[in-house]
Fold each of these.
Amino acid sequence: MSENKRSFQDALSESPLVVPILAIFTSMVLGGIIIAWAGGNPVAAYIGLYQGAFGSLNALSETAVWATPYILAGLAVAFAFKGGLFNIGAEGQLALGAVAAAWVGYALPDLLGAELPRYLHLTLALGAGTLAGLIWGAIPGWLKAHTGGHEVINTIMMNYIALNMTSFLLNGVMKDPSPTNVIARTPLIAETARLGTLFAKYRVHWGFIMALVAAAIVWWLLERTTFGFEIRTVGANPDAAQYAGINVKRIITWTMAISGLLAGLAGAVEVTGLNYRHELGFSVGYGFDAIAIALLGKTHPLGVVLAALLFAAMRNGGTRMQFMTQIPVDIISVIQALILLFVAADAIIRYIYRLKASEDKLVLTRGWGG
Amino acid sequence: MSAEKRIVLQAKGITKRFPGVLANNKVNFDLREGEIHVLLGENGAGKSTLMNILYGLYQQDEGEIFIDGQPVRIQDPTDAIHHGVGMVHQHFMLVPVFTVAENIMLGAERLHQGSQGREPERPWWKRGFFNGLQNLERLERKQVSARIRAISRQYGLEVDPDAIVGDLPVGVQQRVEILKALYRQANILILDEPTAVLTPQEAEDLFRIMRDLTARGVSIIFITHKLKEVLAVADRITVMRAGEVVGHTTPQESDEQQLAAMMVGREVILQVEKADANPGEVVLEVNDLRVNDSRDLPAVDGVSFSVRAGEVLGVAGVQGNGQTELAEAVTGLRKAVGGAIRLAGHDILNKPPRPITEIGMAHIPEDRQRHGLVLSYTVADNLILCDYYKPPFSQRGVLQNQAIDENARRLIESYDVRTPSPYVPAGKLSGGNQQKVIVARELSRNIKLLVASQPTRGLDVGSIEYIHKEIIAMRDRGIAVLLISAELDEILALSDRIAVMYRGQIVAVVNNGQLTREQLGLLMAGSPPAEVGLSL
């Protein structure tokens, strides 16, 4: 009997899903304790959260709307992790992707003096966004490969440049010139540059499908192609990669470029699918939540999709929870932070639930030595 | 003789389990006063586990330890030292920027207050950091230096207490480790593979020191897998295999062949059988090569040699004399600062690894876990690490799983890699099987040159035997082999010609058999060729 039990526990300990699920569960329990301590009713709060996230077709649609940028930005961070790189710059890459897509969306017809065909204009807008993200990711990648400058520092610095540049543009040349406008935002993009919604009555748009397709492509690229083999080899053991004849510098630059591309696409999709303009402050935090999502999803594309849906549900449901129970939506951030903490320090979860220690440590990046 | 000596240390029925492994199974071991007791066994036989239990790094699951006839519990190295057990690890535990005296003092500050026992538990605010500060105030360098000099004289271990450890040769650093244990009044010394890093001459010195120590009543447990050394120094020999003691013997009652058979559990062919070489045209030509090390200091200083098809050129030398940098420059892993390298007529100086590999070079790297394998990858993926981008493994940029699978099953079969499946991470295999994965991958390609760096380091006798046979088979198929090894026995067993490297230069190239083992050892230690009777 005990032998069976032990082997079941072994199998449980080795499953890649068990730590994230227990981390979520533990964080919800701790979140509930905090809610109760603050004088709220945790059960009512979580019922509100659930209803807000999944309680109606509209709630589901809104959850998918939230999930769209989360999936794409989470894929961006996870992709870099696979190559052994820590992209903290998704926030900046995403902002520039949004700016570029918005500019193509509203300014290009005027510039050309003619309306563009719908799919061409949309493709150009999305293309401009991904290209901006790609460039913004490739720069710290190139610096890492050729100068050894650490990508963590450089992506943070690139964030400052991107976010302040966005603010400068949105308050200046790109500001919506209509006389009633007082906030830093671009004009609305042309109809021809917009992504359609999936269902007439709801806001969920084709960007959600694009994000799911992107996850599948990322998985295929990493696991099934020669290029992906090179990226994973550089990520797992750069010395062996060099020994195997892989051009490590080229791969590092491309890994960051593609990571930036995915983040830029997230920004472009938000503009073309949801807001139809770029507005200062619309995206604050997507790029940082993306790090948590990539970690919670264990850098696997499917894991990223699931983690992004969870984060989206919590963000979306949090509003209704606050409305129903007056518990501030900030508790959601606390729970999300706890989840990340437990996933990153999985020894805590393994200790609480008496799971065997994992033999394979999740090594995401190679520290400061590079 | 030694049978009448008192037993100073005894382990009875020691059993230690790790998840999935029985590392020690009811092991009995005893050590008599003033003897050298060799513990012999392959990697993974359980020698280190037993020693780590005696030194307090592990706790046994079952069994008892007696010191001077008294049962003891050794919970950590502090307990071990308190009971007079000292250990010299294979990798030295020294701070290179400290002096010898400072290294020896390190951690022993409390002992020379005169109290020998463990101090009572203190509250947390009196431990650690604050305690350390008190000790700093108390360092009395002169007294310590004087005591070190006294111990050095007593045991015949010449060391300058004020020398910086990082400046000392490896052999002397090892003496510092031994002094460290003696300073802590150890009378039982555990030496874990102490000769792995030494030249033959340094090893001789160590053996002399060991005999001096035993003459003064110190008892030594000597762990090794080198059979020649066992016969040279042992009073008694205990052989371990797969966690169990499989036999006791003495040098008088056994020979190398017998010891090897006990260790492996079957007859082993120690001597590689090979016919005379049949050298063809020059495949690798190195001219006045200069390479710097990672600190940008000259490591290879004007080296020239050539390797012909169908011969093995062995580069002998003590580790750290530029062999690593030489191999890395030839294989494209490190940039040279000058000279020329030609492989089959192509200039390959400072070319990246891929074009060199494509001309026909295979490389068994010195550090298999760093360069040779991606430990988190499956065996199947590791077997295509150098060829993943070529058909049949890749078609139009897409990996072909069926071809990868077939390749893995074929190589696992023909190179006898022991793995439960091709889809086990390479990190889960034993060292010998990891090396076989590399050998299978490298030798199965269409190659002209094989660069083999320390191809059998840390491997068990069975794997060594296998890899040696494969290397000779490659030579007999007309492939040029550049063998780099710190093991002189390996060089002598495989090479047709031997180049001796010392301080970045090749001091002599001779035919195998032209010089004795001892003469080669002297050259490796830096004696001028003329002094060892070699006229060039």
Amino acid sequence: MPRGKIADAVRAGRVLVSDGAWGTFLHEKGLKPGECPESWCASRFDDVAEVARGYVAAGADMVQSNSFGGSCFKLEHYGLADEAAALNEAAARASRAAAGEAVWVIASIGPTGKMLVTGEVTEEELYGAFKTQAVALEAGGADAVCIETMSDAAEAVQAIRAAKENTGLEVICTFTFERTVRGDFRTMMGLSPADAAKAAVEAGADIIGSNCGNGIVYMVEIVNEMRAVDNDIPILVHANAGLPRVVDGRNVFPDAPEDMARQAPALIAAGANIIGGCCGTTPAHIQAIADAVR
Amino acid sequence: MSVIAEIGEALQKGKKADVEALVRQALDEGGDPQVILEDGLLAGMGRIGEQFKKNEVYVPEVLIAARAMNAGAALLKPYLAEAGVGEKGVVVLGTVKGDLHDIGKNLVKMMMEGKGLRVVDLGVDVPAARFIGAAEENGAQVIACSALLTTTMGEMKNVVEARNASSLAGKVQIMIGGAPVNQSFCDQIGADVYTASAADAADLALELCG
């Protein structure tokens, strides 16, 4: 493959730039609240590809895909569980069409929303759902899966294993942390950045990291803690443009492109190798980050 | 340790079978079902709520404690109904239209039930009219709306407006919560109460029902 492995590029010393938010752009193009975003991979393929194209033009080295909620467990809310394979494959194809030969496609896999701890789902069922997604994303032309917004180590492990054991894709796994009243960081399920990093590395992830959360400033502390666990594995950060504030009934994310770009050196110093955005970020944010790291 | 205190301890550890056995034991020993409920189950759940608020425990601990609480409460139900013990209030709860996230909403439900409130859970993707209809049918004091998405939180305004245009105006309070929601949004849409955590939501709902 001309692009090679993302992890190899990182180990060769490159700092890479990933993409930013997706959902907001689909809504701008007419996705209604309550409409299944992944359904657009079939019905509005060009609009989906257009989101990825915006990030490619901004200088991203890799783009995600419109498959965050593409597990059969999420799709069943819309009566689309049987379409899981087809929609995931189309999601990867849309991003591949935008990415061309030079840019990596890191296809998104989000949590299922099901809780292992209550017994409402089994590890085998999660594995099966993630396997369907990963295999289809590979068939659609993805280079990697980006398992993201994870909070439960056990669910993340099933997703990592399903991708590693059934595809040749690189596997990225990122967790979402919130700042506690003590000032440290935990996922919703109580997992620390160090424990999350350990679990993902042990399960076979090629790249680990953090996404969403409380803003890019806090990502520096999170990356520090993850880097202390493993000094070799590439670390990816997809940070929000801060926490949204409501202004005149609209959500405004406080961090401007230059605010986020200003944090890039500190993130790299902490051990991050790949930097991109999450909620509230735009191609302008990605361009500013790209300018800052190159 | 008294059997009542043991119930609370077992509940906090999420030991469902132990809670059930201890509730049975307490009943066999002639314990007052109301005391078993209040000082055993609800007290234990209240402590989990406090620990959750302080980030001393997380979602898994709350989920398994709530499961133990519900198992214990199910054993008490026949006795409480017989004694004519009323609920402390009724809350209609749901995730707003267009939003399918239920983890936060379920936590709120568990915490509210842990305060002795009856919760009518409408599930996810709930249109404004259903909140109003269910509140009317059940004689609720509170409508509680959850949203996780910035694209769906605006739907809460529709619930407020539907309430204001209904017979519930001035009688039923609307509480809102969820990751993107805050006090200024609450003020802006004219909702009555915003809380930042599930435990706070349960405390405030109890006050509103009082």
Amino acid sequence: MIEFIPPAFIYILGALLVPLLRGRVKSAYMLILPIISFFFLISTQVGTAWEIDFLGFDLVPFKVDRLSLVFGYIFHLISVIGIIYTLSIRSDLEYVAGLVYAGSALGVVFAGDLFTFFVFWEMLTVSALWLIWAKRTKASQAAGFRYLMVHVFGGLVLLAGIIMYISEQKSISLGFIGLHSPATYCIFIGMGINAAWPLLHTWLTDAYPESTVGGAVFLSAFTTKTAVYALARTFPGTEPLIWIGAVMTAFPIFFAVIENDMRRVLSYSLINQVGFMMVGIGIGTELSINGAAAHAFAHILYKSLLFMSMGAVIFRTGKINATDLGGLYKSMPWTALFCSIGAASISAFPLTSGFVSKSMVLDAAAHGHMSIIWLTLLFASAGVFHHSGIKIPFFAFFSHDAGHRVKEAPPSMLIAMGIAAFFCIFLGVYPKFLYSILPYPVDFVPYTAPHVLSQLQLLMFSALAFTLLLRSGIYPAEIRAINLDTDLIYRKGGRLFYQVMDKGLNAFNSAAEQVFVGKFLVHVTNHVKRLPATLLAKICWPFWKTAFDAPDRKTISENLLKRAQSGFYPIAIMGLFAAIYFSLLFLL
Amino acid sequence: MQMDTEKKHIFDSKKNVHLVLYGLFGSLILLLALEPFIHKHPYFAWEEWFGFYAIYGFVACVLLVLAAKYILRPFVKREEDYYD
């Protein structure tokens, strides 16, 4: 009797049946998969571990502890929401890729050894790729390839690190690693690429806006948060993470302010939010790890809600640039409402999920007396309200009316957004629910009078700044343009490399061809062609000069050459006759 | 709010927009007025300054926008077909 099936198996094997089913059966089947998986999960005890002996190593394909459970729960919840959202899209490719992708993320989260971890980690990349390619545009195809290249690179760095680490430790068990050797640095960076660290982040802002309407919802939830989990598992309390995280919270908001593509704005703010989690992991106290996990949980919900609302906008209007949008609250009021709830949550308004999770990280930084970090995080908090909290809903749904008169989003999309919006508020109003599933016991009270007041002051005065800047015309107008980022290095750099290789190697090739084939070989063959004649002329000239009354040497040489080319040498004929004569003598 | 295109929508009238703005200004004043009555538990000295969060939020956003507009944008802005 099977007592338990790991979620990853249910998702990934279950996904394979999806294309065989039709209509409502398919919809029901896809919704039941995560629910069955969830019931299996809540029936397991913390501390459960499967061990299999494999080539002398202990494989642990499934292991449950409180840290993995937080991520396990939210991954189940968001996959249900994501599936409901995509029901009206009807694309088997996206369904299968989405389920395999979610399953791989669950595989990573419940992996107890480095081998299982790495296999699922790579499956995450491969399945995510199809959510980008499924859009079937030239841009998405190119972005998908760049996504693949960056993640294959990251995967190889991680693999190199893991192999070195295993040979150092003589064990493949997955636990605290910490920075201490080249192997651990490789693992750290490999994970960091998936966490979209600064300078390594452009795969995210490049690919997510090019993915499908539903694909972006899945993508925003899994890859970076799996990396957050992995870093929380293996590198808690690693100081560089604090600084990496602080930079991550601050720099993307500048790009978000001037970005025109709304889903790219959300991608930048995704990096900003993951930055808070990095800081939490880097500080490494119980409060801060709790904060990172809680923030990941809350973030997945409100970020996917925002991606869902922008996806609905694309689904109905076909547009996503701020320059093409505006006034949509008139035709898509529910989407506007849900988007605003997501925007309030990401901005951490009191009574929303962001407020009860982000403040844990800020408090942990304050506890550690990290004043620069704390001020940076506070700046980023104001900034995220500015671009995600106000800019997204304002330019899409309010602002100047762009004249779109479309239908409201389809019911399945509205239901999915409604569920996510419900959880955004539910977690904010009843934080105990979230706190009860965190890795460590929580003694943190988010709702104190000074905390609520200070947060409201921060946000409302940010709103004042936005209002004044907008009304005075200083606020940067949305422009049809793109903004360079570090992907310039490989997008133009790749082309430069290609051109250098093209000019360099092909020029060498053609030069070699000209010199060797065009000149040298022609010379040699010419020479070889003339060689018997010239040699003969050289050798025989002294004799001929005396023996014959020859016209001159040049004519003789030319005659010899002609004969050489036709194979008609006087000497050869004489030789032939001589040979015949001698053979006749011999035979007779 | 219905989908009727002929219908006047809530923010089509200037009055409602002004109402939102007055609401914002009113809440700002209220938030500052409440501050003296709230007992703070500061970690840092500057948290005790009156209106620290309000000023920080305002200044942060103004600087953010100005830096993005006047410093970052001139460096990174390109035509939409730049990479094609």
Amino acid sequence: MGKMTIDDLAKIRDAARYKIALRQGAGRVRINVHMGTCGIAAGAREILTAVMKEIESRNLQDVIVTNSGCAGLCSQEPMMTIEVLGEPAPVKYVFMTASKVKEVIDAHVLKGQVLKEYALAVGSEKTR
Amino acid sequence: MAYRTYLMVCAGTGCVANHSMKIKEKLESEIQRRGLQDEVSVVTTGCNGFCAVGPLMVVQPDGVFYQLLKETDIPYLVEEHFIKGRPVKELLYTPPKEKVPIPKMSDIPFFADQTLIVLRNRGLINPERIDEYIARGGYEALAKVLTSMTPDDVIREIKASGLRGRGGGGFPTGIKWETCKHAHGDKRYVICNADEGDPGAFMDRSTIESDPHAVIEGMLIGAYAIGSSEGYIYIRNEYPIALERLQVALRQAREYGLLGKKVFDKDLDFDITVVRGAGAFVCGESTALMASIEGKPGEPRAKYVHTVERGLWDRPTCLNNVGPGQMFRRSCCWVHSGLPVSARAMCQTILGAAAKARKSFPSVERSITRA
């Protein structure tokens, strides 16, 4: 890169916004994929990849992805929990597949509507 | 694809001495072996201040703080935390005399009540990447100063901020700049004093190791205010990591045209030379420091003529410490936002039997070495 202009500063800053938000642990939405032995055996790995792909393709700058251990409901894995800042409680989604991930992100993350047909329950143990 | 997790490995002097670079290599190879290289990124950062429990690492966005890491811990850690999502309890921090570990960095008392100002980028960016500094708003204060303020505006702003020196005397920085700007001379110099000779003090080292570009940006703003084209950073040779990061930072700033002729195509030509001090305590004093830069024995002279009027090579010279250097850029942003604390922010080093450090110095940025 050659000599910087003032516009370049803003460009670099904008391009790195997501990276910096992650490093500060800050985000509007937190998607937690449960990855205990049961979750992994049921395909949690593909769910995690699907979540990351959705975030990438939609260029979501305020969603952070974490993974956690078994939540104790192994029969309904793969499972993921979505926490949205300002919503009263996190929501657990069960029997996830890559296409369900897409629907859930569309409805819950983007529109703020809980997708009841895939949800286990509203409200559960806190992850933060 | 973007990474989902960042492993912020501390690479301050304390952690590097405790082999944090080996931890970093091991993490990278283990992440590669597990096929996580597109999801998990390892970043080296400046000093986090909690050197007593190094080598340490912070996992983001989870905010989990790992301490006293050993190479042999890494395979288990990678599998448990990054594949199975379970933080490793044995590697978490447990406060003295307590039994329950604290997983999150933000819940650890040492970090919880710090307001980071001078060290706002510590642990958050790789100090050897100029783009990461810019990503945090770096060089924007300079851009603002060059595009919307005259040198006199800058001095007024610094005066209004109440910013004072950090060398002990507490001299108002705005007045120093103003005097220097109006002193007679064909050329003026800006010097950053990073010759931190006091035994056990390493605030400047931490600052430079974490965020070297902030010092450069501060000096650029100072240079514009007083009308200088030549700057020096006088730094102890005993700070090899700080020195290296500073040189990397200067090289990057030159490549981007942030040092050199016509910065941002505006009326500012400025470059910085690094001078290494040989470790004489007295060279932290302004006149001795300037004598040392000139190649003379580092001895102080009587200051009936101030260095702002006749300093380096008998020309007007503005000498500031590392801390305020960082804060010029903050001051320029802050006066507008009405935050009065800018004048008081300070980084402190606490060492020895420091169990009570938190009580004695609430809300300061701090570093603790192994007691």
